[in-house]
Amino acid sequence: MPSARVWGRLLGVHTAVVETVRFDEHEQVLIAEVRVRKRDRYRCGACGRRCPGYDTGQGRRRWRALDMGTVQAFVEADAPRVACAEHGVVVAMVPWARHGAGHTRVFDDTVAWLATTSSKTTVRQLMRIAWPTVGSIITRVRADIDAEVDRFAGLRRIGIDEISYKKHHKYLTIVVDHDTGRLVWAAPGNDKATLRRFFDLLGPARSAQITHVSADAAAWIASVVEQRCPAAVRCADAFHVVQWATAALDEVRRQTWRALRAQPGGTGADRRGRPASAGPAQQLKRSRWALWKNPEDLTEKQQTKLAWIAKTEPRLHRAYLLKEGLRLVFAVSGDDGKHALDRWLSWAARSRIPEFVKLGRTIRAELAPIHASLEHGLSNALIESTNTKIRLLTRMAFEFKRPDALISLALLALGGYRPELPDRTHT
C-alpha cells in the first residue's frame, strides 16, 4: 500500500495530510480522506488571510481529483467556515482547490490545458465532465492567471476590433498587442462604453504611453481613442478600406447585371419554366469571384470571364480597376503610397461611377488615419488573424451559457499565458 506521501503526490494534494484512502464499492470510486495542515487552517477562501473560525459549515465535502487509471478519484475533507473582516463568512481555504470549486487545482489545470490544445469531445470524454463545467473551470483558471500576470505591461501599439460571437448581433470587442501578437483584452459589447472599460483598466498613465492604434473606421472606436489617448496615432486598417472598394464594385456589378436583364433577350426560362437570366446577363452571372480575387490568384476560367467583362462592360471593368488600384496603394505604402492614393482619389472623382465618387469622399474624410497606416505599415492583419482563431473557439464554446467562458478560453489560448500541465518539473 503506498504511503500517505505517495498518495498525496498521486492525487495532487501533497500540501495536505492524507489520513486514509479507500475504495467505495457502491460508487466504484477512490476516496482519499485528508485534512488541512495546521499552518493552512482557518484562512479565508477568498483572500487567504488567517481568520477566526465561524462554524463547521455543512460538514465534510468532496473534490473531484484526477482519475487513478480508469477509476474516478475524490478528495474528502472537512469544510469549516471562517469570519473574514473583508469577505464575511466564507468557507475556509483548502490548499488543493480554488475557492468555490468542486475540483482540485491539478484537475482544473489539466482541463484548462486540454481545452486550449484539444477538441471539445476529447476534453469531455477524457475528463468525464460536461462542457459547461469546462467553461466554469477555464474561467477560474484564467482569473488565477490574471491575478499573477500583467497582460497590459509594455503596451505601446494596439489593434482594436469587434467580432460576432452569437446570433442576434452579439459582439465582442477585442484588443491585441501588435508587438507581442497577443490577445490582451476582450469583453462583450461593441460600443463606446465597452471600449472605455478597457481604458479604465489600463489607467491614464498607461493610456498615455499608447503610441499607435489600428482599427477600422468605426466612429465609436475613433471617439474613445481620441478621448483616452489623444497622442496616439490612429491607423486605418487597409483591409477594411479595400473592403469598401470591393463593396462599391459589387454594387456596380449588380447594377450591370440588372441592366442586362432588362434588355431584350436578357431573361428566359430554366428547365422548370422559371424566369432566369439569358444572353449577356447569363454570362455575367457568377463573375463575383473573378472581380473580387487578386489578379495573381485567378483561375484560367476567371481570367477569361474578366477579359470578357473588359471587352463588353467597360464601366464595370473600370470599377474593377479602381478596386485594384486602391489595393495596390497599400501594397506600395510609405510616401509613394500617399502619392498613389492622391492620384487614385483624383481618378475616382473623375470616374463617373457614383459608388466610387462616394467612396472617394469617404476616404478623404479618413485621410489622416489612412496616411498613418501607409506611413507606419500598421494594419489589422494581426487582429483579423486573431478573429479567425476566436471564431474557431466560438464554435467550441457554443454550449457555454455566458460569454465570460468564451473570453477565458480565448485569453488562455491566445493571450500568451497558456496553462501548463501540473507537476511537469521532471521530464
Query: Structural class from helices and strands?
Result: alpha+beta
Query: How far is it from the N-terminal to the C-terminal residue, by CA?
Result: 26 Å
Strand content: 15-25%
Mean pLDDT: 88
Write the H/E string, N to C: HEEEEEEEHHHEEEHEHEHEEHHHHHHHHH
Q: Which percent bin holds the helix content?
A: 40-55%
Lateral strand order in the biggest sheet: 10-9-8-11-12
- Number of discrete helical segments: 16
The stretches of 5 or more residues where confidence is low (pLDDT under 50) are none
Biggest pleated-sheet summary = 5 strands, mixed
Q: Judging from the principal axes of the Cα atoms, what is the shape? A: elongated
> How many beta-strand segments?
14
Radius of gyration: 30 Å
Describe the structure in your own words:
The chain has 427 residues and is α+β, with helices and mostly antiparallel strands. It is 48% helix and 19% strand. The chain has helices spanning 4-11, 105-117, 120-127, 131-148, 192-208, 219-228, 238-262, 280-284, 288-292, 300-312, 314-332, 334-349, 354-365, 367-376, 381-396, 403-414, and strands at residues 16-24, 29-36, 53-55, 60-68, 71-78, 81-84, 88-91, 157-166, 170-177, 183-188, 212-215, 233-236, 267-269, 275-277. The strands form 4 sheets. Strands 10-9-8-11-12 form a 5-stranded mixed sheet, sandwiched between helices. Strand 11, helix 6 (219-228) and strand 12 form a beta-alpha-beta unit. The chain is elongated and about 90 Å long. The model has no long low-confidence stretch (mean pLDDT 88).
From the structure above, extract its key features.
427 residues, four-stranded mixed sheet, elongated
